[in-house]
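HOLO CASE FILE
Compound: iron/sulfur cluster
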Amino acid sequence: KDYRNDIRPNWCPGCGHYGVQAAITDAVVAKNIPPEKLAVISGIGCSSRIGGYFYAYGAHTTHGRALPYAQGVKLANQDLEVIACSGDGDAFAIGMGHTIHAFKRNVNMTYIVMDNHVYGLTKGQASPRSDIGFVTKTTPRGAFETPLSVCETAIAAGATFVAQGYMINRAELVDLIQQAMDHEGFSFINVFSPCVTYNKHNSYDWFKEHLTALPEGYDPTDRAAAFKVLSETQGLVTGLLYRDNSRPSFEKAMADANGGPHPHPLTEDVVKPDQALFDSLCNQFK
Ligand code: SF4
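Model generated. Tokens follow.
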């Protein structure tokens, strides 16, 4: 199946996001998901252009708001495979309120954050993921805030699937995305995706030197082990860090609470417009 439309990405040559796009494509092809069953929802940023490059349903939404849209899409049509994409600024700065609640809410969808430790679209400002000392237009003497530890935050907030990948390690990333789609609940993958234009510090060479793999025999169901390995590697580790299959997805919990499958919110059985109320409201504005 062809998931590429005829829009040419306008990412800079060498941008890591090309690799993320390729990995998502490989994963949906491997899982044989037809384009009409796929929705790619994105926020705002260089990374969030990605939704426009897929031949599938999608929405390029507002800054930091990919997740509310994506969760709404999934709840309205649970037959869709929903993937939301953001950058680290989109996800962990303006969108962090939504991100935290999505971690704990556990809607059955996948969230891929393309993490380059900088704002690219607005031409190079420090993000919540920027390293201490990183010189940008907004941190001319070097960033001095502690970078957000996103995987620890996700696990602590109640996320049931937390993974980290690197776009260069394509086979591992494709496998993680497939596992994320198989997981019954909210799956978060933080993907290192270098910005070659505005982040000369966290370069391809830097990631090659600093990223490590999970230790042999690592058990992703062991919550304490996840915190330990993230602490020991300062978060610079790739693989499936944590998975909790014991918690029901939001959809299942909601259905159980309501005594059966939740009805489709857009069907007439559910939405029964009160014509008299509607008319009286309209009359007030005449
Ligand atoms: Fe990629 Fe950075 Fe260019 Fe944006 S500015 S397209 S993140 S390399």
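CASE NOTES: The mean pLDDT is 93. The radius of gyration is 20 Å.
CLOSED: yes
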